[in-house]
Design a protein that fits this description.
Elements lengths: L4 E5 L5 E4 L5 E5 L7 E8 L8 E2 L6 E2 L10 E10 L2 E2 L6 E5 L11 E3 L14 E9 L3 E11 L1 E6 L2 E2 L15 E8 L6 E10 L1 H4 L16 E10 L4 E5 L5 E4 L2 E5 L3 E4 L24 E2 L1 E4 L4 E3 L6 E2 L12 E9 L5
Parallel strand pairs: 2-9
Antiparallel strand pairs: 1-3, 3-6, 4-5, 4-7, 7-8, 7-9, 10-23, 11-16, 11-19, 12-15, 12-17, 13-14, 13-16, 15-26, 17-18, 19-22, 20-21, 24-26, 25-26
Length: 332
């Protein structure tokens, strides 16, 4: 008899950045089995359900030891079916994101000069920060969301393959937060850069092409966690040290489309040690921070995981989408 297979957490095969303390686990029965009579779940943290008489195999809530932010849990399942008792499944895993509002040390930032223009013809902003890493990074996680749409880059390479992140949402009640796997990293100088555009937040929406539905100023919230082999962690978040510019994306709108002018692309804008040619004014200005007057993510008991939209033909990248309710300063 074969083992259960196709283990999933919240419908995801790669469950990275889960934002609930009770992720829901699913599996498929061994080949040839027609019905489940009981199951047994175990984790590397010591949780063992024992044999549970149930035919349930979809969205079984995790009920093990309390989870903390950034925790990876490896789990397995055994089943009893009409074929008998199965061996344990191959291990699967899920990893939590930032579960609590206090886990966010980053603050919202917006472009120092907000891109302006006619509706549907506003440029995207470029934002960036450089940082140093002293020891080899074995695990790297980027948690990001925006009021607008963002694409992130690390040392010149695209982070993830999801499009239109963070996705549409009810911005005054929920934010979608993505968690990206960005490790490992070598010691040295690094750069985290982001393209920030209007999206559904302030771009054209619907048959009337209404604009500024949720606000008239885009913003980014991002927090990078870098863990070395000895367990030490460096956190790089959006804040006053970020810089912004208007660059090569001269128009970006969900209805009117996107236009580039590569003559306006700042050289090395998404790479470390970005420099401006001698005699050329720097295109970079300071960002404006919002503190926590803008809502911040907090865990929701109703958090849901989603599969991201990807470009046709692109292989899945280790990225997870999760919902998080929002709160204002002082709420948890």
């Amino acid at each position: 008899m074969t083992a259960p297979h196709t283990l999933r957490t919240g419908h995801l095969g790669t469950a990275l950045g889960v934002q609930t303390t009770a992720p829901r686990l699913s599996w498929q029965l061994p080949a040839g089995a027609t019905g489940q009579q009981a199951y047994r779940l175990t984790t590397d943290g010591g949780w063992d359900t024992g044999w549970v008489d149930s035919d349930r195999q979809l969205l079984v809530p995790y009920a093990g030891p309390p989870l903390v932010s950034g925790q990876r849990v490896t789990w397995q399942v055994q089943v009893r079916t009409d074929l008998g008792e199965s061996p344990p499944s191959a291990p699967a895993w899920f990893e939590t994101g930032l579960l609590w509002a206090e886990d966010w040390s980053a603050v919202w930032v917006e472009p120092g000069t907000m891109p302006t223009g006619p509706a549907g013809d506003r440029p995207a902003a470029l934002l960036r920060v450089e940082f140093d890493v002293d020891a080899p990074v074995v695990v790297g996680r980027l948690h990001a969301t925006a009021q607008g749409l963002y694409e992130a880059f690390l040392d010149g390479g695209r982070v993830g393959d999801a499009e239109l992140t963070p996705g549409y949402t009810q911005y005054d009640a929920r934010l979608q937060v993505q968690t990206h796997d960005v490790g490992p990293l070598a010691p040295g100088r690094h750069a985290l850069a982001v393209v920030l555009a209007d999206g559904w937040f302030r771009g054209q929406v619907g048959i009337t092409r209404a604009t500024d539905q949720w606000g008239d100023r885009t913003a980014l919230l991002a927090q990078l966690h870098l863990t070395a082999a000895d367990g030490s962690t460096v956190v790089v978040g959006t804040g006053a040290d970020w810089r912004s510019s208007v660059g090569h994306v001269v128009a970006a709108d969900l209805i009117a489309g996107e236009r580039w002018d590569l003559t306006r692309r700042p050289a090395g804008w998404d790479a470390p040690a970005s420099t401006t040619p001698a005699g050329t004014p720097s295109p970079w200005s300071t960002t404006a921070t919002r503190g926590w007057s803008t809502p911040r993510p907090r865990r929701s008991a109703g958090s849901r995981s989603w599969c991201p939209a990807r470009s046709p033909g692109s292989p899945p990248a280790p990225t997870s989408w999760t919902w998080a309710r929002t709160s204002t300063a002082g709420s948890g």
